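Hey team,

Sharing the FAD-dependent oxidoreductase run so nobody has to redo it. Sequence (468 residues) first:
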Amino acid sequence: MTERPHLAVIGAGPAGLAATLAAAARGVRVSLVDAAAEAGGQFYRQPAAALGARRPDALHHQWRTWERLRDGLRQHVAAGTVTHLTERHVWLVERESRGFTVHALLGPEQREPSTVRADAVLLATGGYEKVLPFPGWTLPGVVTAGGAQAMLKGFLALSGRTAVVAGTGPLLLPVATGLAAAGVRVAALVESADPMAFLRRSRALAAEPGKLVEGAGYAARLLRHGVRTLTRHTVVEAHGTDRVEAVTVAALDRAGRVRPGTERRVPCDTLAVGHGMLPHTDLAETLGCRIDATAVHVDEEQRTDVPGVWAAGEATGIGGAVLSLAEGHIAGRSAAARLHGREPDPRAWAPAARTRTRLRAFFAALDTGYAPPAHWTALVTDDTVVCRCEEVTGGAVRAAVEELGARDLRTVKLLTRAGMGWCQGRVCGPAVEGLAGCAPAPSRRPFARPVPLGVLADTDPADPCAEQ
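Structure output:
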């Protein structure tokens, strides 16, 4: 009996789950590799069983879709067509003469190695939050918007009792409504976007009425909870000694500058802030995949330009769970066909392709409206910490450019150490680029995360104990 071709799917969020089910249903053996203890990713994050959540569905929408994905995964695992490898933190995907080796670190401590060998790889690595600095953003109680949501979904925990949700992007709406439903008093939702920007793109947005209804539902819940929404406003500063005690917000003019005299102080004990999402492209970059702007480039089959590598979901561009599901389904079916040596028939995934086309257009229009204030760098004082890992200030970054002649992100990094810490510039990178006036550039990191030297020393390309 011929052995089934083997596909490694990295990431168990919506895209990874959809790809896994599509490929496994078509005769491919799948190893689903994920850093979390349970499948679902950030979007379908579940409370730990020990917490005894009586209604975990109350923290989610699209719950039936999650149940379908979860049950499908369980069935394939039971049948032996899928191996679900949890708590594997992938640090490198290595291309070899006869396939690929996925290198990961095991468990919370990330000290023990784990490897998976496969004929092809599908990257469903998701995205991460973009947060721009401002005075006081390092105070305890200031969290990312996604972090506040993750605490609530995964641990049923709150970062405070009185919150301000601020920044820009569609994520702010479910975060604010989720906190309010959990009993937090949301003092304000501070959105820097101008509503008129969306009216100018009404035709593209109206093509996806389901999303508009979803947004209207969030707005209705905010109104019901008495949450004050301040559009075309931004957080100027967070105040406090041992933790955040209040934030100053101000109105923005049409050019994205703070309007003098509009500042107001809002008491709170937590600030959930975010400025959109960025694709996780580290593994794609180490494989040599083409990156367009900030996202992995793929064709109509979700193939990258590296043979044997597919990508789907937020890694190919931020667009939400439904788009990720469509891309994952297409990628899984394409990978299955090609691993069996067949030319895939695009008609087989035509409905998913139509969904992909519509949602890509919708989110392209949305992205132009949800943008950080054009002059956000003016709020970053010289003593504002920009790189938290290395405690590099805005003044140090400006000095590297204005006094030492740095013209690119790498030179700023060498002169200031910004981006040399544990996060390797994932958090501070956009802020340093903005302050230095540098264009975004590929990271060119050899590994996607820090790796113990002992693991590197013991890495054996011929390891017979690799997980299959």
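The mean pLDDT is 92.

Ping me if you want the raw files.
A.
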